[in-house]
Amino acid sequence: TDAEVSTRKKTFTEVQTERLEQAERTVLIKCPPKLNERKLLQYLSSHGNIKSHFFFENRGVHALIEFSEKNSIASLKDAIGIPSSEHHVPFKSRLFTFTLKNPVSQAAEETPVRLSPQSHIPVKELIQKLCHADSISSQMYILLNEYQLTEENTKLRFMACSLVQDFARAYFPDSTVKPFGSSVNTFGKLGCDVDMFLDFHDVRRHATKMKKGPFEMEYQMKKLPSERLATQKILSVIGDCLDNFGPGCTSVQKILNARCPLVKFSHQPTGFQCDLSVSNSIAIRSSELLYIYGCLDSRVRALVFTVRCWARVHGLTNSVPGTWITNFSLTMMVMFFLQKRSPPIIPTLDQLKELADEKDKHVIGGYDCSFVSDLSKIKPTKNTETLDVLLGDFFEYFGNFDFRRNSLNLRKGKEVNKPESSPLYIWNPFEQDLNISKNVNQPQLEKFVAVARESAWILQKEDKTQRMISKEPWGLAALLIPFGKSNPNKMKNRMKGIGSETIRSLLDSLKLNNPNSLQKAVGK
C-alpha cells in the first residue's frame, strides 16, 4: 500500500523515534473475555482522543490503546483505583485491568471483540495455502505475509520497551530503552524475542554541548574501574527492579558474566521473551544496515523469510544456541548472494559507505561503521530476476560453494580466501576481525550443503503440468516438508542419481548412530 511505501522510505532513526514516542502515549489494558467495545472506548475517550487501538489474546483479552496526547495517560491514571488486596508493590505502571461492576446486567451488550493475531500459522497450514498459489514467487510472498511482524505486533514490542524504560528512568531519568535486532530490522517474524537495550547516549551528547564557553560545569558521578563493571551494576539493579516490582515480569535471569551482559525475562502482559542489555552500538548499526537492505527491494525480505523457514523445517537452524547456522548468519548469506547477482540486487557495504555524508559517520571502538542512512540516495537495482529464479539459484550457489577455501565478505561483495580454518567463515560487516559464523561445525555445514543441493534438484525437476494433476505439494510447499518424510524411497533413488559418494556418506554420518561419530561431529 502507499502508506507502507511511505513508511518504508523513512530512515531507520526516524522510524525508531516515531515508534518510541507513540509507545509513550500508549496504555495496555487487561479486559473481560466479552465486553462492550464501544463503551470501553467511550470511557477512555473522556480522558483524551484515542488515536488507535486493537485487541489481542494473551492469557486473556488485552487492549492496546494509543492516545493522541501523552497527558491523557496522566488524566486516566488519576481516575484509576489501586487493587483491593493488601499485598502488592505500589508501583503504578501503564498496565491496567478493566472489569465490569455488574457483569450480569451488562451481559446482553457484550460481544467478543476482533482479535489481532500475534503468532504465525503452523507450517502445515502454510503448506496448504502455498499449494493454491500460481507461482513460486507468489508462494514466497504468501509466506512473507504470514510470518512478518504486523503493525500491531510491532507496536506491542515498542510498548514492552517503553514499560521497561519507565523503570530505568526511576534511576536514570534521561535514559531510553530501544529495541534492536529482528524487532526493527524488517526481518523479524511473529513470535521472535524482543532484544532491547538501555541507552545513555543522549546523556553523553548533552554533556558535550555544555563544554562551550569560558567555564566548565559537570556532574559528579560515581567512578568505577571499567565500563563493563558499570554495565553489570546497572543491569543488576534494573534486573532486581523488574523481578521485585515489575507487573507481569517473570523468570528474570541476570546473565552478567556473558561477553555482552544481559537480563532475560518473560513479559507476560505482551507475551514476549525479552533480553535487555546496555547500549550495544555495533548491534544497532547491524540492525540499521539490514533495515536498509530490507527496504531497498521487496524480493530481499521474501527470499530471507523463505530461506529461514526452509532452514528451520530441515533442522539447519535452531532456537537453542549450538553448532548450527544462526538466523543472522543465514540472513547474511542471502545478502551476499544478492550482492553477487548480475546486476546486483543490493549494494555492498563499501558502496553504502561511499554514499555516506558527515552525519552518517560512525566510528565505534576503532571500527568504521559508516554508511548512508537516507534511502533515496541509493540507486534502485536494474535487476529484474523473479523470486522463482533467485530461490533456485540460491540453493545452487551455496550447494556448490567452495567453503573449504572461500569466505563471504559483505563489505566487498566478494568471495575471499579464508583467514582461518572455521568450516563457515562470514566476515562481520563492522568488526572485520570477527567471523559471525564461528560456532558452525563441519557436519552442520555439510548438512546445509546437502539439503541445499536436494532443494535445487527439486526445483529444477518442477513440472507445472504435473502439479495441476497430482495435487501434491509443489514448489516452495515441497521444500517445506522434511526430506525423507514425504517419500523416503524417492530420496534414496535420488542419492544414486547424483552419483556422489560424499553426499551419501554425509547423510549416513548425520544419523550419528554411534558415540564416535557424534564425538567427531561435535568436536571437543
From TrEMBL:
It holds the Pfam family RL. GO terms for cellular component: mitochondrion. Residues 11-79 form the RL domain. InterPro entries: MTPAP-like_central (IPR054708), NT_sf (IPR043519), RL (IPR041252). GO terms for biological process: RNA 3'-end processing. GO terms for molecular function: metal ion binding; poly(A) RNA polymerase activity. Residues 136-294 form the Poly(A) RNA polymerase mitochondrial-like central palm domain. It comes from the Eukaryota. PANTHER family: POLY A POLYMERASE CID PAP -RELATED (PTHR12271), POLY(A) RNA POLYMERASE, MITOCHONDRIAL (PTHR12271:SF133). This is PAPD1 protein. It comes from Pterocles burchelli. The gene is Mtpap.
